[in-house]
């Protein structure tokens, strides 16, 4: 009987370990607005002001995996010392929303195929720009989600100050582990983003068991 109880305890302990291992601290989705003072949100997919013309998110929230969110905080701190801050257009994106985007614009290079998933679906990519400390967007090559060549990082037929602004954003992001997508000046992938699984957690469910 005693042996039986001990075995049951061992099994329970083993199960607990498995649960803990699948829910590591660094996998947590963190509310970026709460973590990073002064960060501004302009979550376009929570409005109709995006390339689909539809509101795809029920609320204007911004979540990233914990290590990505903590590094973005360092970016904001560096920029603050230079008279700038961050404005975020998008971060974690549920897979179901990726499918809706793909229906509207099925072109890889601009919209990730939901069959493979986007790094946004992994909570490890962020779309953003620079603002001044009084909240004005600094001039960048294009608006958000511009699918032309002008949005490419190597596009150089631009005013000098625009090239300088794009480089500043890219340099500070890279310093803290974010790497830019060649075709979109506003998109950055966090280092080792592939290690995070693709998620389809609705915003209302974040923080409840995840
Ligand atoms: Zn993006």
In short:
The chain is α+β, with helices and mostly antiparallel strands. The protein has a single domain, classed as Muramoyl-pentapeptide Carboxypeptidase, domain 2, CATH 3.30.1380.10. The protein contains five helices and seven strands.
Write the layout of secondary structure elements.
Blueprint: H1 2-21, E1 29-31, H2 32-35, E2 40-41, E3 63-65, H3 66-81, E4 84-90, H4 95-104, E5 125-132, H5 160-175, E6 178-181, E7 184-190
Parallel strand pairs: 2-4
Antiparallel strand pairs: 1-3, 4-5, 5-7, 6-7
The structure holds zinc ion.
Features:
210 residues; alpha+beta; Muramoyl-pentapeptide Carboxypeptidase, domain 2; five-stranded mixed beta sheet; two-stranded antiparallel sheet; globular; binds zinc ion
């Amino acid at each position: 009987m005693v042996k039986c109880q001990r075995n049951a305890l061992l099994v329970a302990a083993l199960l607990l370990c498995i649960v803990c291992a699948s829910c590591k601290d660094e996998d947590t989705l963190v509310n970026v607005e709460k973590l990073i003072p002064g960060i501004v949100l302009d979550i376009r997919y929570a409005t109709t002001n995006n390339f689909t013309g539809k509101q795809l998110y029920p609320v204007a929230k911004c979540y990233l995996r914990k290590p990505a969110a903590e590094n973005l905080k360092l970016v904001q701190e560096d920029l603050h010392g230079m008279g700038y801050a961050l404005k975020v257009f998008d971060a974690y994106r549920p897979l179901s929303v990726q499918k809706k985007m793909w229906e509207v614009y099925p072109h890889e290079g601009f919209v990730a195929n939901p069959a493979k998933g986007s790094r946004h679906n992994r909570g490890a990519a962020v779309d953003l720009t620079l603002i001044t400390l009084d909240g004005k967007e600094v001039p960048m090559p294009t608006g958000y989600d511009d699918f032309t060549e002008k949005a490419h990082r190597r596009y150089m037929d631009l005013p000098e100050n625009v090239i300088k602004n794009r480089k500043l954003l890219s340099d500070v992001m890279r310093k803290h582990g974010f790497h830019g997508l060649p075709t979109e000046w506003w998109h950055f992938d966090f280092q080792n983003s592939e290690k995070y699984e693709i998620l389809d957690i609705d915003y209302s469910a974040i923080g409840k068991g995840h």
